[in-house]
Amino acid sequence: MRVVVAGSSGMIGTELVSALRREGHDVLRLVRRASSAPDERSWDPPAGKIEDGALDGAEAVINLCGAAITLTRLSNARKQLLLNSRVEPTEVLATAVAERDIPLLINASAVGYYGDTGGRVVDETTPPGTGFLSQMCKEWEAATQPAADAGARVAILRTGLVLSKEGGLLGPLRLLFSFMLGGRLGDGRQYMPWIHHEDHINAVLHIINTETLRGPVNMTGPNPVTNAEFTRALSRALGRPAPFVAPKFALRLALGELADEGALASQHVIPKALQDNGFTFRYTTVDEALGSVAKR
User: SUPFAM superfamilies of this UniProt entry (predicted)?
Assistant: First the structure.
């Protein structure tokens, strides 16, 4: 089928485009500049504009847009940037999907939707939490509604921490561990919903081919672990000790509200929708996942 991908330059987007093409799909990439390659079409989300003909013949649109959430304090300006970079592109694409009767929209979101859930097991039926990240995800997902109202199948990717050699979480952690500065965050009891990048890509392909998958889909591995367990697994994978502890007060001093909503938040998220719809994970444990990506 013809698939249009927005946000194709990121870690997941780059891999996904390659995987779609290996599967035989015709992929067009939306870029925020003048198009310069045969597979590119330009668009301007803040202006609500998409190049004429960009969605002609499209059978699926995949939207991965969103500015990165880094471990820095969330100023009001940063919050607005994070929100706009997600909601605006989603509104534009969901409206375009509705107007052109495109049958499938796959849209990014995050497990931040659930907020801090402690040790309670979380699946796609769990209601949203509180705080900025949760509210941002709610608005992000709500922006897909025009497509759903028009009858499109809408799948929302509530993604956890993606483990990859190419970037994401492991970059800064690998550096810390290389200097023997690895360690747990706070008491380490908070759950970290992780997923191997190959499983994430394969899950998107599975969604495309599975008509029963719609609505929120937790893009997380089947066996979430606590921060302490993750730290020990990374220590084993890198062959480096992890003797240190980043105290909660220090994290809150450095990160402000992002400490409690991000680094210290506990989310025992399971991928119920994927499992109920026949998806098989290649990497089922954090040791398997980290063993394949931790070392360069």
Answer: NAD(P)-binding Rossmann-fold domains
